[in-house]
Design brief:
463 residues; alpha/beta; 3 domains; 4-stranded parallel beta sheet; disordered C terminus
């Protein structure tokens, strides 16, 4: 017996909801019930409890995505599950597709080594604070960077402090003394050893990361691999990723050659040479680099957040490794898994065509302004008419809010958001901040924005 879903909606959206469900040809039974209000976004849990007298034999109820209130309490009152649907009706088919095949992003294979590049120049407490931040963003190992000809008197203390707080730690240096000191202080990994410094691996228990004796010398890397395999030691191999125009393509080929010759060895890729040294948005770079790592079974990356444009690189790498793992496990393309790496653009930025917006505007009978976007531009409308433009300044003379500073401020903010969304190809939803995925820190909106709109508006605070 198929599931029966009750869809609650408003007068303006009822027709469109029925059309979408009819086109979907879903594998469940459904009832559409109009709850007696014009705008579905104004629906609340309390309103549903007061007005809904019949659940029509449903197994669960789906309410508009912007429905406010305590749905758990409503579920208890009605005796069946009540859930929020998507914020836009046009997303309903995708909503049910994702619900049925929601990817599991809790798993990954790639370990992120997050390097504190300037460790010699900051205190132990500052190193610990940076480690906590990196861990919260997805780091598995905290890498302590050293700098050439730069004293690092608190190296041992820093490693021991990190170990004391439960971190896995690597020491990143080409100086023999630093590597020995770091290994003896308790570091878990040594970056990096080559054929001439393999003797250090006999002095400490840390896992060595192997690099070529000379740049690109894969024969020396093969010999180092052979020595440690015969000794029964664990190790990780890093053929070294080069920056663009300084050997990037050849270095990718080297990774493929090493993987082909040594199908079972653990490998590392230092992705910072691309994210840090390329002035382009890092989310896309991380997606591509982690995709390469997924294809070549490279299960360790060295990531950095030094340049200001790369200030979210570790968080992006964390999400990218999860997306690529899910895609690989499902033998699928890395699409429709998670939108967090699509900071600037979106899969479906404009859910409504201009003709649909015009139809909605014609049905509005109250003075509250509604703002939507389409391919053609930004549209604002109420009972007095619909106005469209690509520049919000062209709209202001038509809105008649010159003597209402709060309302003018609110409309200015919302129209600016709409313009940005239209220019970039992002989804705009009135009264909601634009979504930037991994590109921003996630903070709650705490300002009481009700002060900037007149009574009867649809504005609400983000929860």
């Amino acid at each position: 017996m198929s599931e029966h879903i009750l869809f609650l909606t408003g007068k303006l959206a009822e027709k469109q909801l029925r059309q979408i469900l009819q086109k979907m040809q879903p594998d469940f039974d459904y009832t559409v019930h109009q709850l007696g209000l014009k705008v579905a976004a104004l629906m609340t849990a309390d309103m549903i409890q007061r007005r809904l007298k019949d659940t029509f034999g449903a197994d669960r109820i789906l309410v508009p995505g912007r429905c406010r209130g305590d749905l758990e309490a409503l579920s208890e009152h009605l005796g069946l599950p009540v859930e929020r649907g998507p914020e836009e009706l046009k997303d309903l088919p995708q909503f049910f597709g994702q619900e049925a095949h929601k990817p599991d992003l809790s798993h990954y294979r790639v370990k992120i080594f997050a390097e504190i590049v300037e460790a010699p120049h900051i205190t132990v407490e500052q190193i610990l604070a940076r480690a906590r931040y990196y861990k919260n963003n997805g780091a598995d190992v905290i890498d302590i960077g050293t700098l050439p000809d730069t004293p690092f008197p608190h190296l041992q203390e820093a490693i021991q402090a990190l170990k004391g707080e439960g971190y896995r730690v690597s020491i990143d240096s080409l100086n023999d003394d630093d590597l020995l000191l770091g290994g003896r202080a308790g570091a878990d990994y040594l970056l990096s050893l080559h054929e001439s410094t393999l003797w250090i691996s006999e002095e400490v228990a840390a896992t060595p990361i192997l690099i070529p004796e000379r740049h690109g010398d894969l024969d020396s890397l093969d010999r180092s691999i052979d020595v440690l395999q015969r000794a029964g030691r664990s190790f990780i191999v890093d053929p070294i990723l080069d920056p663009l125009h300084f050997g990037f393509t050849d270095s990718i080929v080297r990774y493929q050659q090493v993987r082909s010759k040594h199908p079972d060895v653990a490998m590392m890729c230092g992705i910072g040479n691309i994210t840090e040294l390329t002035h382009a948005d890092t989310a896309g770079m991380n997606a591509l680099l982690l995709g390469i790592c997924s294809e070549l079974a490279i299960d360790h990356i060295l990531a950095t957040q030094v340049s200001q444009h790369a200030c979210r690189a570790i968080r992006e790498a964390d999400l990218a490794r999860r997306i690529m793992h899910a895609a690989k496990q499902n033998n699928s393309l890395p699409k429709h898994i998670d939108p967090g790496l699509m900071a600037l653009h979106e899969i479906a930025p404009f859910p409504y065509q201009l003709s649909e917006i015009q139809e909605l505007a014609a049905a509005i009978s109250d003075p509250s302004y509604r703002i939507q976007t389409s391919v053609e531009g930004v549209h604002i409308f109420n009972r007095d008419g619909l106005h469209s433009a690509t520049d919000p300044f062209d709209l202001f003379p038509r809105l008649q809010v010159e003597n209402d500073g709060g309302h003018a401020f609110y409309l200015g903010v919302e129209l600016a958001r709409a313009e940005i969304a239209w220019q970039l190809g992002k989804r705009f939803t009135q009264d909601q901040p634009l979504q930037w995925g991994c590109a921003t820190e996630h903070v709650e909106q705490t300002i009481d924005t009700h002060a900037f709109k007149p009574a009867g508006s649809t504005l609400r605070k983000k929860k």
